[in-house]
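Q: Fold this one first, please.
A: Sequence and structure below.
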Amino acid sequence: MAQFQSYNKLLISAEEGIENYGLNGKILGWQFRCQYPSYRGTYLSCIHSMEVYLDGERVPDGDILFYLNGKEFLLSEFPDLYKEYWFILDKAVVRVQKDGGLPAGSSHRLLVKMKHLIPYTGYFGNYLVLDGSNEKMLTVAEKEEAVL
């Protein structure tokens, strides 16, 4: 169960940590899960930007796939996703494409930054836009890779 912390602290799930994912025995990259940081969900079009950093190095946006509601999205598609709702209890899966993934058992500092608009604050055309971030030290799971 998600615990409300603030409107600007994306909830990176430490329960699952980081997992490698793949297909037919080939590891294609790594993934983690996160929840939206509010007592209300939001439409993906309200997320102005999302950045992922691993051990201080920014992951290129083109290497990131965002999974929610049984669908896959590129970060660049967010502005057009006004019908895709991120409910507060749903964990999105963020996948990073990286051949071979990350070494099992290794620990990494994961930082996610997000700029998001709060749609119900639009008074006279001015909306509250929050910058938020969350950083956690996570370990790559020792188990078999998650399957696509």
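Q: Good. Now the second chain.
A: Here it is, same layout.
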Amino acid sequence: MSTLLLDIRAISPGFGDDAKKVPTLVLEASSHRLTNGTGSLAQSSFERLRELYQKCKEDYWDGIETRAIPFSAYEDAREFLNSMLWEDNIPEPEIDADDFGAIRFEWIANSAAMFSITFYGEKVLGFSGNWGEGEQEYGTKKLNDATYQSVLGNIMRTFQERGNIPTARSGEGRGESYKIYLRE
């Protein structure tokens, strides 16, 4: 897998009419990815995440003793969703807030196979998986590339147990996949 980091502000308009179209084409390509097969659900995940953060960014967001979700937790969750867009066969998570000020993503294949990650902020990630018959994993890690790959493996494991393998979200064949992060 290749990763491409683009800062739209840094793309030089270059010379000529074609060069001036590059920033627009990059944005269109990423937008197409978000709305073409793999991303229509992903776009709704981004919207759900944004709405959740807006609702829970202040203490006592549900009227009782709940803590605010820190902006850094929202950023970490958004970054994870952005990376997840470019993976095949990864279903969309359920997105919710924890009372203690964190964002939780949850994947449930059935009553015996589930996995969740919790974004506390400052690149700290909690995880918990249960795959039946005493097979469990849980803990806290720093969010980095190795952790990301481990989490993806556990999500896939959740759906591979007992034949719950998700189908590809894209009908296109893949030789190599790319991650494109756009900064506007």
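Q: Anything worth noting on the second one?
A: The longest strand covers residues 102-110.
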